[in-house]
Write a structure and sequence with these properties.
Elements: E1 2-4, H1 8-19, E2 24-28, H2 33-36, E3 46-48, H3 50-58, H4 62-67, E4 70-72, E5 74-77, E6 85-88, E7 97-100, H5 102-115, E8 119-123, E9 125-131, E10 136-141, E11 147-151, E12 155-157, H6 164-169, E13 176-191, E14 206-210, E15 215-220, E16 226-233, H7 246-256, H8 267-273, E17 276-285, E18 288-289, E19 293-295, H9 298-301, H10 310-327, H11 331-361, H12 367-382, H13 390-396, H14 401-419, H15 430-447
Parallel strand pairs: 1-2, 1-12, 2-8, 5-14, 12-19
Antiparallel strand pairs: 3-7, 4-7, 5-6, 9-10, 10-11, 13-16, 13-17, 14-15, 15-16, 18-19
Helix pairs in contact: 1-5, 1-10, 3-10, 7-8, 10-11, 11-14, 12-14, 13-14, 14-15
């Protein structure tokens, strides 16, 4: 069988398939980053959490990944002026997400896939055409020059949001795909390590400078540095288009991100030399062509990065597909069940990711939001198993995304109502909270108990 794309999801899927005894050829359009020092693709750091770690656990790589990860226990909020504040992610420090290098993880997965002895990764191979009836692939061999024809019985597309496999599917009758680009782009910047590899900011946090329609974030790296990402509109009064000179960039940062400026010695250099990335939400249907081809990961459902779930969702795809292959005798049956299980959940996390941009860029800076987060934490501790938040379900459990979305809507309403008129979390009415939880959350969870069954 053939797999298009040796990125994170493709390399992990190759391992799952190899464990089932299949011989897998992987066609990767980029050079081998382990030998030529290429990038891992998109530059945004990864936040790996419960879903991604579970998938790695199933192929024996969870502990190796965690040894290269840095726990982030909350959001460290950087106001324009004033003191920093930490907003914990979970009910206690045991609930945290982890910063991990995209490049390191991708290299690790490729190497372990090859070490199975059943996976052959070929680099600089670009799929140009697909004939789903015959399994013929037209491949541009950029390594050797010229084009060649390859044949496969089953084709998996894990080739990202611009997937050549998905584009070939879209030419078939009955297939649809939408791409919704975000009006914001992103730019990578770097805060170097301090003397002796020390961290110049709090190590165990995801740092956010929320500024309404735009923001700066920073995630820690193993070497003591932080990878910063500036999210900014492409056009407008404050945008990538308006910051067209080093002087304007420096003045903008000194005004809007004053505490970050001393930490960014290569600010203007990085700003004008690093590419401006784009973000897109991809939704399509179906994801399969009979039992002959299937897309998954970003190729099927690319999402924007504001819930830190793109890779986690793609890794979960691999585990769910593995379960489908276990239950069915034919590829067609397995692919059909996979689409049925994952489509609604992929759409749910795509919508939550877009909504979370507003939360990160503006809500996190408001006193009301901070109070509501404190109330939410109080309810999580006071009513374990009965009160569940959207963030905790998405990041710290494997409850299907659609259920996390629905429960989160109800839980958010309860928190908002209990926070009305409060000035401090100690005054929250726990008796009223118990009543609201019993009225709105518990019946819903009982009614949809089957929906809470984890996938994969």
């Amino acid at each position: 069988m053939t797999l298009a794309g040796a990125g994170l999801v493709g390399s992990l899927l190759a391992m799952f398939l190899a464990r089932r005894g299949f011989q897998v050829e992987v066609l990767e359009r980029r050079a081998d980053m382990r030998r030529e020092g290429g990038s891992a693709g998109r530059s945004i750091n990864l936040a790996i959490s419960a879903r991604g770690l579970y998938a790695l656990r199933r192929v024996g790589l969870e502990q190796e990944a965690l040894r290269h990860a840095i726990p982030m226990r909350g959001r460290m909020i950087h106001p324009v002026s004033g003191e920093l504040s930490l907003q914990p992610y979970g009910k206690d420090d045991s609930q945290h997400i982890n910063s991990i290098s995209r490049a390191w993880l991708n290299k690790c997965l490729m190497t372990h896939a090859e070490e199975t002895g059943r996976v052959n990764i070929r680099f600089k191979q670009r799929i140009q055409q697909v004939d789903f009836d015959t399994g013929a692939l037209t491949v541009l061999d950029e390594a050797g020059g010229g084009t060649r024809e390859a044949r496969t019985s089953v084709l998996f597309g894990t080739d990202g949001s611009g997937s050549a496999v998905r584009q070939a599917m879209m030419r078939l009758p009955g297939y649809t795909s939408t791409q919704e680009p975000l009006s914001h782009g992103y730019k990578e910047l770097t805060i170097p390590a301090g003397p002796g590899g020390t961290f110049q900011m709090e190590k165990n946090a995801l740092h956010i400078w929320p500024r309404g329609t735009y923001m700066l974030i920073a995630l820690p790296n193993e070497d003591g540095s932080f990878t910063c990402t500036l999210f900014l509109p492409f056009e407008g009064p404050v945008s990538f288009a308006s910051l067209d000179s080093p002087g304007k960039v420096l003045a903008f940062f000194e005004e809007r991100f004053p505490d970050a400026v001393p930490l960014l010695p290569e600010l203007t250099h990085d700003f004008f030399h690093n590419p401006t990335g784009t973000m897109v939400t991809v939704k399509g249907t179906p994801w399969q062509v009979g039992g002959r081809a299937l897309v998954l990961g970003d190729a099927a459902h690319a999402i924007v990065p504001f819930f830190g779930q793109g890779m986690n969702c793609g890794f979960e795809d691999c585990g769910v597909l593995d379960g489908c292959l276990e239950r069915h005798r034919t590829w067609e049956e397995a692919f059909a069940e996979f689409f049925h299980l994952r489509k609604t959940n992929a759409d749910a996390i795509a919508d939550m990711a877009v909504e979370n941009f507003t939360e990160m860029s503006s809500s996190t800076a408001s006193a009301r939001f901070l109070l509501e987060k404190q109330v939410e934490k109080a309810l999580l501790n006071a009513f374990p198993g009965q009160f569940l938040s959207r963030y905790s379900l998405v990041s710290f459990s494997r409850v299907p995304y659609r259920m996390a979305y629905e429960v989160g809507t109800r839980a958010g309403g309860i928190v908002s109502e209990l926070s009305e008129g409060l000035s401090r979390v100690e005054d929250v009415d726990l008796e009223r909270a118990a009543q609201l939880i019993q009225e709105r959350l518990v019946p819903f969870m009982k009614e949809h108990a089957d929906g809470f069954r984890t996938e994969g």
